[in-house]
Amino acid sequence: MNELNETRRLHKSYILFPLFSVLKSLLPFFILVVLKGLNWSAIPWYLYAGGIAVVLLPSLLYGWLKWRKFSYTLQEDRIVLRRGMFVREEISIYFSRIHAVQTQQPLIQRILRIAQLKIETPGGSKEADGVLPALRVDEAKRVERWLYQKRSEAVVKDPAAITPEQQMETSSEETGIHGEYAGIEGEPGTESGLGSAHERGVDSRLSRVDGLEVPAPVETEVPVQQEPLLRLSAGRLFVGALTTMNLPLLLVFATGTYSFADDLLPDHFYRRLVEEAGSLPAIWWLGLIPLMFLLAWILSAVLFTIKYAGFTVEREGGNISIVSGLLERKKHVFSPTKVQAVAIREGLLRQPFGYAEVEIYVLTSEKEKKMMLHPLLPMREVNELLASIVPQYELQADIAKPPPRALWLFLRWKLLIAMLVGIAGTIYFGMVGIGLFVLLPVFGLWGYARYKDEGLNIYGKQLLIRHRQISRLTVLMRRPHVVTVNAIATSRQRARSLLTVEATLMVNRGGWKATFLDQAHAVAVQNWMHQAARHAVPSKI
């Protein structure tokens, strides 16, 4: 970057991108040819040469034209992207509208040792509004820092340009300082370390970023530095993966594998597979199910380790970055004030040993709003982790639980389902199926565990909701981020003064709920949400 308004191009390896795309689409064809046992030696050399030329030359020519027609320019108040061969497209992204900037390394970029830069704006598309797909890694990082710096300066110069999403970043700290509940017991009136650049008294003077003169903050703000907060080894990740079944990750892999195999396997393959499976004795199926579960468990652990390999959390100035991925290296950068919820999940294999995984829900225009913060952490260290990354959240031990009269509501459907499965198994499998009645005590314990773990708590401006399906999930959220709080119940449940509390956020419209709570607790949450009470809400319900 020598000066502003200079037209810059992508890294020349961008020319190879169309070739990689063609090879990817031809991969099923190559595998099919190999499986058919084609005699490669019988093919004349000129057909090999012609085939390579047909694939190589048009792809490289198309890639070169795309590279020549793709440029970007850094201007005083915006970054301008120009692209397109036949239809020229010019995209202007103003610094004040930038929501997030991320440096990533998908598989192709990792192979070529380059990076892509994604620029997001509020209300933009899920694929980001501006993408520079091929930059040198050091250049991508410099542009990323420069864009964040220019965004901060644009907000300082013109506060009216702040978008609603950017306003939400500071909403929690504003209420923390000036809100009517600033003096709530157990919560400080301010949240340190989350102030905006303007509140920290940032001054602006000319400095150089890779040869480019730009206004840069000088004292009172510390220069942007990368401070490692957390690094996890592959062994720790694999142990964390073994203690939970990552079903979503496994389903994505299975769907992709099935789609790929469907193009290669003959049509009669699946029909024959079903016929063979139907001829197996029932006792074989009872043994196959645990084996398939074990294989799926190990496979999900391997996929989890690959997805989060090299897991690192760093502080970059006032932002937090999370980097992970073996095949596709991803980097998520966000402000702590964008974190709308913290989810602490204790699996069946983890809870007895006092371990959990911690996830955060971040307000971003990306499709992926849920991010892993730690895959395997002792529960006693959760608050220490939160204090170092998202200090506005704190895990509280005390919660308001369902009353004893709610126990039957947690048990009834589970016991009924277990009874029906046992009866159906006995009818279909005979004496072997009687063993399915073992589900009765298992499902009974499951319902009782749900009853014991359900609950919620109000702590200042923070709401805690705890719920169990299989794993025990504890969610922390703050009032400025909560969209709705609903109290739900059937007429019979209301007659028992039992309500289900459900809270929704922008990052999770499905919401989180705590079921069959005492009506007084549900009303207290609604009052907390609507700020109906003028007196301080108790720190414990």
Automatic annotation (TrEMBL):
The chain crosses the membrane at residues 14-33, 45-65, 237-261, 281-306, 415-448. The keyword Cytoplasm does not apply. It holds the Pfam family bPH_2. Keywords: Membrane, Transmembrane, Transmembrane helix. It comes from the Bacteria. Residues 67-147, 308-387 form the YdbS-like PH domain. Residues 164-174 have a biased composition (Polar residues). The keyword Transcription does not apply. Residues 164-204 are annotated as: Disordered. InterPro entries: UCP026631, YdbS-like_PH. This is Membrane protein. It comes from Paenibacillus tundrae.
